[in-house]
Amino acid sequence: MVFSSNIFLFYFLPIFLMAYFLTPRRFRNYTLLLFSLVFYAYGAPDFVFLLLGECVINYYLVKGMVKAQRGKKLLCALSIIMTLGLLLYFKYANFFVENYNSVLGWFHHEAVSWMKVALPIGISFFTFQSLTYTLDVYRSVTPPSKKLTDYVLYIMMFPQLIAGPIVKYNTVATQLVDRTSTMEDRAAGFYRFVIGLGKKVLIANTLALYADKVFAMNYADLSTGAAWLAMLSYTMQIYFDFSGYSDMAIGLGRMMGFRFPENFNDPYTSGSISEFWRRWHITLGAFMKDYLYIPLGGNRKGSARTYFNLIIVFLCSGFWHGASWNFVLWGAFHGLFQILDRLFMLNVFKKIGRLPSVLLTFLVVNLGWVLFRVEGIAHAGKFYQALFAFRRGLDEVTDLHYWIVLALALVFSFLTLTKGGQRLQDTIFAEHYSKKLSWVMFTITLVLLLLSAGALCVTDFNPFIYFRF
After folding, report:
1. In the predicted model, what is the mean pLDDT of residues 242-268?
2. pLDDT, tens digit, for every residue of 420-447?
């Protein structure tokens, strides 16, 4: 089940909100936990008890770690091994076996027989949140949860279970125990949810139709114009798809009194790849920095070690996104530009000015998304050839709706490059709304909700890129 679906919008969410707010405050966590389990079981019934069992075991491992006079490191290691072990098995076992069989084939050995492992939805986000809890408690950054149900709720809370944001335990620990949800919180959360829904359904889904059509073609015959347009469409799709889902998660959380961290900050207005990663998937960047880059030494051990650490971090980041060499290359691609920024690119960007820097960075990001979208390194190479082959023809898009949506996507993506655009966005995502502005926002979001619901009712096309990450 995803947020942008009829079953969620018309059945699950209304029933949940009614049950949640009718429940006495001290019992609301149990209601939220129950619905979270139902939410996950709907999409992955075969895995809900496995992940629930992992939560229970990890809770008592960490609890024992805190109380232990000796063996604290051992219990911490067991917790990490169990958590990462599930991720490695379910997400990467197929990848490792396929590559092992490829090596065997080079030496004319018989391939290893293997029953493919199904991937539990949201396991990447589930894993990272489990790790932050274990490591933060081990480092004494935060005390452990006093109640098993509160810990399980932190891991399996449905708003951020499938696609984040990645929420550190210490940022919501007090909210799990005691939180308030005012009418202003509920209204602001509703506005944020519907804006995210509109981004996903009205923009991302529309652009995905053209991107999917072109990326499914034979790249050897693909015109250069169509290749560039498909790449741009996918660049817009993935941003409005993922940021829209994050908006919906943040909005749902605020309706209940939770304050989840922001996950995007106008990433396509970045003037360098380094800045892009401070604005794109912010919670993933924070996780990699706090739990990998800094423990590796960060930038404290000289330039060569810094560059090595950056490459390791971005290779891991790429591999986290998917069990494919394309994702590894995508991570290496961004890691390389992080290094180039530190070597000379940041100085170049300062000299050429803000707007050229943004456009050049946007081009680099677009080219990187090809690796993210195309299946197989060979196919990626052919698509890059199509981009620069200067073959005639555009495989014209005659649908005016597509061009309007693409134009709106570009406008919204670069809106904050102007002062007026920044003020408008700050007004829309304000912490508090005046009475007049609240009515304006209510009207806008009601229209967006009706348009989004209508779009979902007339088509079954509703892809979500990060659903199985």
Report:
1. 95
2. 999 988 888 887 888 888 899 999 999 9
Q: Is residue 28 part of a domain?
A: yes
Beta-carbon count within 10 A of 87 CB: 18
**Do 156 and 197 lie in a common domain?**
no
Question: What band does 372 get if pLDDT is binned at 50, 70 and 90?
Answer: very high
Q: What H or E segment, with its residue span, contains residue 268?
A: none
Return the exposure string of 24-53: e unless at least 16 CB atoms fall within 10 Å of the residue's CB, then b: eeeebbebbbebbbebbeebbeebbeebbe
393 and 332 inside one domain: yes
Residue (of 237, 231, 177, 169) closest to 206 by Cα position: 237
1 domain residue, yes or no = no
Does residue 395 register a pLDDT over 70?
no
Contact 192, 441 (CB under 8 A): no
* Cβ atoms of residues 466 and 163 within 8 Å: yes
Q: Cα dist. 323→241, 398, 450 in Å?
A: 21, 37, 38
Q: Is residue 210 part of a domain?
A: yes
- 321 is annotated as an active-site residue: yes
Residue 164: predicted pLDDT? 75
Catalytic residue chosen out of the listed positions 108, 109, 281, 321 = 321
Higher pLDDT, residue 186 or 105 = 186
Between helix 28-43 and helix 148-156 the angle, nearest 10°, is 40
**In the predicted structure, residue 406 carries a pLDDT above the cut 60:** yes
Contact indicator for 281, 242 with CB cutoff of 8 Å: yes
Task: Give the number of domains in the chain.
Answer: 2
**87 and 117 assigned to the same domain:** yes
- Compute, in degrees rounded to 10, the torsion defined by CA atoms 458, 460, 461, 462: 100
Of 141, 127, 146, 157, whose CA–CA distance to 31 is shortest? 157
Residue 414 is part of which domain span? 184-458
Task: Return the percentage of the chain with pLDDT > 70, whole number.
Answer: 97
Q: 115 and 217: one domain?
A: no
Three-class secondary structure assignment of 399-457 = CHHHHHHHHHHHHHHHHHHCHHHHHHHHHHCCCCCCHHHHHHHHHHHHHHHHHHHHHHH
Provide the b/e sequence for 391-417 (b: ≥16 CB within 10 Å): eeeebebeeeebeebbeebeebbbebe
Question: Is residue 297 a part of any domain in this protein?
Answer: yes
pLDDT of residue 427: 87
